Amino acid sequence: MSRAKARRQFPVTSDDPTIRVALTVNGEAVEREVSLRMLLSDFLRHELGLTGTHVGCEHGVCGACTVMIDGKSARSCLTLAVQANGTELRTIESVAAEDGTLHPLQEAFRDCHALQCGYCTPGFIMNILSHFESGQPVDLSEEGIRDVLSGNLCRCTGYQAIVAAYRQAAERLAVRRGEA
Fold it and tell me: What's the pLDDT score for residue 180?
C-alpha cells in the first residue's frame, strides 16, 4: 500500500510585514523593501550580494559578521536591517581600492600570515579598521592589541600573526599611539 504525499504549495515570499529602508552601503545609496525580522547580515549577503560579511555563530560572539555602521564596528548578525535605516555602512568590500590594491591593513594580514582559512578575516579587518579610524590613541602593547582583538574569534591562527599584523598596519598607517 503506497502513501500518497500531499504536495504543499509554498508561498513565493514571506507574509512578514515589510518596511522600506534607505542607507548608504560602501558609499552607494541603497533602498530596499525588507522584512521587519531580516538581519543585517542576511540583507547584505542575500539582498545586496555582499558575501564578504561572514556569518559564523549567529549569536554575536565570533565577530565574523563585523561591519562598520556610522564608523563604529557592529555585529551584523545581531542588527536588524531596519535598524540600519539612514546609516552609513561599510563592509569588507569597501576596504581595498577600486583597482584591487589592498589596504595597508590587508597587506599586513598578508605579509604577517595572519590568516589561514580566512573565514574570520573580514570581521577582524573591519573591527581593527574601526579602531584605527576612530581617532582614539592606539595601544600597541601586546595587551592593548589583544584587548581590541578580543571581540573576534579565530580557530586557526593562534592570534600571534594577527597581533603582528595589527602592529605592522598601525605603524604603516602612522596611527596615533596612546600611552602604554
Answer: 45
For the chain, how far is it from start to end, CA to CA, in angstroms?
A: 78
Average pLDDT over every residue of 123-137: 95
Q: If you average pLDDT over every residue of the chain, what do you get?
A: 92
User: What is the residue whose three cell numbers read 574601526?
Assistant: 130
Chain-centroid distance of CA 65 in Å reads 4
Model confidence band, residue 71 (pLDDT cutoffs 50, 70, 90)? very high
What one-character-per-residue DSSP string does 34-70 give? EETT-BHHHIIIIIS--TTS--SSSSSSS-TTEEEET
> What global pTM score does this model have?
0.89
Domain spanning 18-94 has what CATH number?
A: 3.10.20.30
The CATH homologous superfamily for domain 104-172 is [2Fe-2S]-binding domain (1.10.150.120)
Instruction: Delimit the domains of the chain by residue range.
Output: 18-94, 104-172
